[in-house]
Amino acid sequence: MTQLILASSSPYRKELLARLVVPFECISPDIDESSGAHESPDMYVMRLAKAKAEKVGERHPNSIIIGSDQCSVNQGEILGKPKSHSDAITQLQQASGQSIEFLTGVCIHHQQSGRTITWMDIFTVEFRDLTLEEIERYLEIEAPYNCAGSFKSEQLGIALCKAMHGEDPTALIGLPLIKVAQHLRDFGIKIP
Asked: For 63-89, how does the pLDDT look when each residue is reduced to its tens digit (9 = 90+)?
């Protein structure tokens, strides 16, 4: 059986992939995740997802590798993970009352055969108007400092929202399982 590897150190992606009840291993791809000077958000997440999968694939050519990357986008500007508490406050103040897109790029790669499937999923979150007090309380309780745009929908973050739009709610967490499961089946991985 071909080994499945998640090219990620994200606990959220690991937890998501575990839902498919297939054996896998996590290996951090350890790549530079900075964006290019004129790189669009969609090109950015697609490039990183592919780079992560290919980097791990170089060391594990017989394995099927899943690479994924996510960013949030506010009025065309890429919002990554906050660098500090004050950065998180700024990101959430900018999101207040806005529709923010969460772009998730995914790449499934098999080095030995050269087969690669890459796609992007978009999930939109409409934030309600947020006060500084609400933002501070959310950050204190949730501490979403390792999340794109300082937003984590799985728990308290849902209270910051007015509405959400997208095909696959797991895409918002960082790994769109509907298409991942479909494509893993195409690669011969048996999923219940």
From this structure: 999 999 999 999 888 888 899 999 999
Report residue 96: phi and psi, to 5°. -50, 120
Which of 30, 42, 69, 87 is catalytic? The answer is 69
HEC string of the chain equals: CCCEEEECCCHHHHHHHHCCCCCCEECCCCCCCCCCCCCCHHHHHHHHHHHHHHHHHHHCCCCEEEEEEEEEEECCEEECCCCCHHHHHHHHHHHCCCEEEEEEEEEEEECCCCEEEEEEEEEEEEECCCCHHHHHHHHHHHCCCCCHHHCCCCCHHHHHEEEEECCCHHHHHCCCHHHHHHHHHHCCCCCC
Report d(CA 51, CA 29) in Å as an integer.
Answer: 8
The verdict on whether 186 is a catalytic residue reads no
Q: What angle (nearest 5°) sits at the alpha carbon of residue 185, between those of residues 184 and 191? A: 95
Q: What is the pLDDT of residues 8-23, one digit of tens each?
A: 999 999 999 999 999 9
Nearest to 111 by CA among 68, 62, 180: 62
